[in-house]
Write a structure and sequence with these properties.
Elements lengths: L1 E7 L4 H5 L12 H13 L7 E4 L3 H13 L6 E2 L16 H7 L13 H22 L5 E7 L1 H11 L16 E7 L2 E8 L2
Parallel strand pairs: 1-4, 2-3, 2-4
Antiparallel strand pairs: 1-5, 5-6
Length: about 190
């Protein structure tokens, strides 16, 4: 069994502008850095064995801020935890994307499907779980993973059999979501916003 704390990266300028980032590598802004520091502070007293991060800079910097605050080693890269790729829609506002593509019943050209996102993020968590069990067989390992709203949404939907998140509910920047991975299955423990 592995305890997983997933944290969404802090704010970027594109978040503030309501633009679709996807796999475009947009950095944190100062508010995002403050949110990452607040997430680190809210985890005071929590103990983590290792920190992983999406390869995208906004998640990586969030992970680095939290790891540093907790005296942990530099985060390890988990490529499967990167944000969903929105193909030709990246950079658009959410409203424009919805009007141009979702209203027509499909995603942008070259976009990753929701099924592909879920499959790769679950596979990534299974690899993290396997590595954790190899390192700490006598006890459960606690792992922090800095990732993205689309990834967390997909995992919440999967772990709750589609009951979470609520329709229209946003996955907030620097929000925390705790799961357990046991035998390859993912179970939600709780979710909180910093």
């Amino acid at each position: 069994m592995t305890l997983l704390t997933l944290v969404r990266h802090g704010e970027t300028d594109w978040n503030r502008q309501g633009r679709l980032q996807g796999s475009t590598d947009i950095p944190l802004n100062e508010t995002g850095r403050e949110q990452a520091r607040a997430a680190a502070a809210s985890l005071h007293g929590a103990s983590f064995d290792v920190v992983y991060t999406s390869p995208l800079g906004r998640a990586r910097e969030t992970a680095e801020i939290i790891a540093h605050a907790h005296g942990l080693a530099s985060p390890l890269i988990a490529t499967g935890m990167r944000e969903r790729g929105y193909g030709d829609g990246e950079g658009m506002s959410w409203e424009e994307y919805a009007r141009r593509y979702r209203a027509a019943g499909h995603d942008a050209p070259n976009a990753e499907t929701a099924e592909q996102l879920l499959a790769r993020s679950l596979a990534s968590l299974r690899r993290i779980d396997l590595a954790a069990r190899r390192r700490s067989a006598p006890r459960p390992e606690s792992v922090l993973v800095a990732t993205h709203g689309g990834v967390i949404r997909a995992l919440l939907e999967h772990a709750s059999a589609g009951t979470l998140p609520d329709p229209g509910q946003r996955i907030g920047n620097a929000s925390l979501h705790r799961f357990v991975m046991d035998g390859g299955g993912l179970r939600l423990i709780d979710a909180a916003t910093v």
